[in-house]
Design brief:
Largest interface: A-B, 20 and 20 residues
Radius of gyration of chain A: 13 Å
Order of helices and strands of chain B: EEEEEEEEEEEE
Number of helices of chain A: 0
Number of strands of chain B: 12
Distance between the termini of chain A: 37 Å
Order of helices and strands of chain A: EEEEEEEEEEE
Strand content of chain A: over 45%
Mean pLDDT of chain B: 94
Oligomer: heterodimer
Helix content of chain A: under 10%
Number of helices of chain B: 0
Strand content of chain B: over 45%
Number of strands of chain A: 11
Largest sheet of chain B: 6 strands, mixed
């Protein structure tokens, strides 16, 4: 069964460094999402992406964040200058069609900023 | 506004006990979906069930069962004969007309041997 994959599973970085989190959505999916979960807290929406542009973003998704679909398969989340409070689990999700309700989640990348 | 409330922050049970995790939602949409996800200590989100607003039939899958009641806007999850491997955080989520996923705060379940 097709699934969303994410790499790396765990990333440790120093404050101020740039990180790129990678996701490979399910191949025929057109809508892509990033979510964040700070340890012990709920899952929070960051951004949605369709047709090579951001369709919606939350207030968390400030200028430090960017997303890109550099090729036909990868969907990336870049944090330009990481802060301690960026430490969290980051989940990528995708779905095939706008009208569908269910998103398919990747296994997550645990980002630790020291 | 849409909202999902999981009033139980933490639950602790002894193995083989039955446990019910509560989920209450708010939405004005007539068409919506409700979800339950399990998040084990390893951190990934494991999809458990999806239920649409027009289907109020209860569902049973092995030791898991779900009770959807539109009259009380609840979608409760029961684990029968709990096992240590059921220890995890369980999230209830709602998706309505805007197709955004609205998450509850989660219930941390500890099943002790």
């Amino acid at each position: 069964e097709p699934e969303v994959t994410q790499t790396p599973s765990h990333q440790v970085t120093q404050m101020g460094q740039e990180v790129i989190l990678r996701c490979v959505p399910i191949s025929n999916h057109l809508y892509f999402y990033w979510y964040r979960q700070i340890l012990g807290q709920k899952v929070e929406f960051l951004v949605s992406f369709y047709n090579n542009e951001i369709s919606e973003k939350s207030e968390i998704f400030d200028d430090q964040f960017s997303v890109e679909r550099p090729d036909g398969s990868n969907f990336t989340l870049k944090i330009r200058s990481t802060k301690l409070e960026d430490s969290a689990m980051y989940f990528c999700a995708s779905k095939q069609d706008r009208d569908l309700f269910e998103q398919y989640f990747g296994p997550g990348t645990r980002l630790t900023v020291t | 506004a849409q909202k999902v409330t999981q009033a139980q922050t933490e639950i602790s049970v002894v193995e083989k006990e039955d446990v019910t995790l509560d989920c209450v939602y708010e939405t004005r949409d007539t068409t919506y979906y409700l979800f339950w996800y399990k998040q084990p200590p390893s951190g990934e989100l494991v999809f458990l069930i999806r239920r649409n607003s027009f289907d109020e039939q209860n569902e049973i899958s092995g030791r898991y069962s779900w009770n959807f009641q539109k009259s009380t806007s609840s979608f409760n999850f029961t684990i029968t004969a709990s096992q240590v491997v059921d220890s995890a955080v369980y999230f209830c989520a709602l998706s309505g007309n805007n197709r955004k996923l609205i998450w509850g705060l989660g219930t941390s379940l500890a099943v002790n041997p």
